[in-house]
Amino acid sequence: MARGQTQQIDGQRAQIRQLEAGLMQVDAQSQQASEAYTEADARVTELRGRIAKNAVDRVAARKHMTKSQDVLAKRLVALYAQDNPSVIEMMLSSGSLADAVDNADLMRRIERQDQAVLRDAIRDRERLVKLRAQLVADQAEAAKTRREMQARVRHLQSLAAQRQSLLADARATLVSLEQAERDRQARAAAAAQVAAVTRAQRQATAQADGTESPVSSPAPTASPDTTPVSSPSPSASPHLERIAQCESGGNPGAISPGGQYRGKYQFDPATWRAVGGSGDPAAAPEAEQDRRAAILYSRTGPSSWPVCGAR
Q1: How far apart are the first and last CA of the chain?
Q2: What's the whole-model pTM score?
């Protein structure tokens, strides 16, 4: 695998791991937010129950206060309708001193009862004011809590969807890069096989002639073809020669396994024609292939060879 391609694939895998970790973190936060929302919902239910009880208490307090007010009103009417009897009048109207004392005690008890009724009415009014304030506060808290939790859950759901989209894109890019690398390795394996066949044919020819020719080193990339691997062309730049070695092992007659990429620089037919070539690139003289590659390099730089051009 080319170094540049290896770094690109490793970087893509690291990005995927980072996105997966981020997505797990968002999922955990979403779970926490959902639990918080459940707790908030329970709190809202509790507040609603308290509000309902508050309403019942207010009705009871209002009835009690109304009753107290009625009692006080009747007592006031009675007091204004007749004067309070004096002690002498009570003694005269009573058969004895003991009856007069009993009447005085009765008046005092009635006075104490009136005072108690008045105190209850005041307490009921104060309680109604507190219950009303508590009701308003509970309703505001319930509404605020629900809004905050709903906004938090929606935000985390949106963030998780974005992370999932990025993760899917990164995985698709990684699959594409790995497929490109497998294709390159397949071309390299085919080139090695062709080089081995070529060496065997040379050795067989040399043995038949009685002279053994030197065996060239294995070519790293190529395709099924029997054209001998040539030495670097003097017209090709060092960078182009490195590209040629990476693409085809420097073999002018190399053909990719699928037949689409041909020649020393693995031209496809469209690119070959775009730089002025005609016919089959793999059948063209090496010097012409070098010239056409130089033209392409002057136009697009090494980008026309995404893997080998980066080396």
Answers
A1: 11
A2: 0.35
